[in-house]
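Morning F.,

Quick status update on the modeling queue. The single chain you submitted on Monday has been processed. Sequence for confirmation:
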Amino acid sequence: MIKKLALIITLFVSGCAYTPEFSAAKLTDEERKDVLLSKLKLAGVQQDFIDMIFKSPRFKLDSKYIKMSVLIFKLKSDYTQFLQGYVVANGRLFLKKYRKVFAKVEKIYGVPKEVITALISVETRLGRNTGSENIASVFFSLAMADQEDICKSLVAEVEDDMKPKIPERCQRKADWARGEILSLQDMYIKRSIPVGQLSGSFAGAFGLPQFVPSSFMKWASPGPSNDRLDLYEADDAITSVANYLKVNGWTINTDEQRAALFHYNRSQDYGNTILQLAELLKAKPVSKKKKI
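Structure tokens below.
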């Protein structure tokens, strides 16, 4: 999902007039940075944390993250790709490899192993595509979305009927990003995680299950045999997905299952695909008859 989405986003960003730099705006880069830092400090982000992030080798303020997030509605996701035979086959191998972990997790959380596997399959191809974007760069850049001239440049990218909605989206995305930066700070201070080095998607999600920082702090949970939490480890990813869904309403009721999945990703197609793939994983594979 991430690999294909990254290609779509690259074409989406490069195909428009709005470039990854901020040079076309009225403010200089330094002035933009000053506005950003002022708002971050008001939100409660500590100067020491900001300094650490800005000194990280891979950190860069880049407007491509703003464009991708604010105008994401222009991209259409094709979830049918996750119902193909090879996806099901890989999922079954994953279920077999981690069957002992799943046995414990199902007993604790009551979330079927096939649903957990389906979700991780859709998110990252079971860990094959976890993303290569610098997570801090994503959120620090997106926190600039409410700066007036940046937002105005995005208004120019959409059809007339959408133009009035873009300023609200810019504000909402910037507010959300500042909240995620606070969660990044908590990950760094409270969990000793080197967040300046953390890689993930264009949307700021990371690990096998693609948690954003606030989801990590609320719902990530170590696996049955692990002391240290690492969402790039299958045991922790499996347990964290189960905990997330359980806390957000997963039960044996189908409507509540869909609601829990919608909380994970606000797309009905996403939730439907997870449930369909889970059913395919439950079905017994068709055995090939030997020729006589």
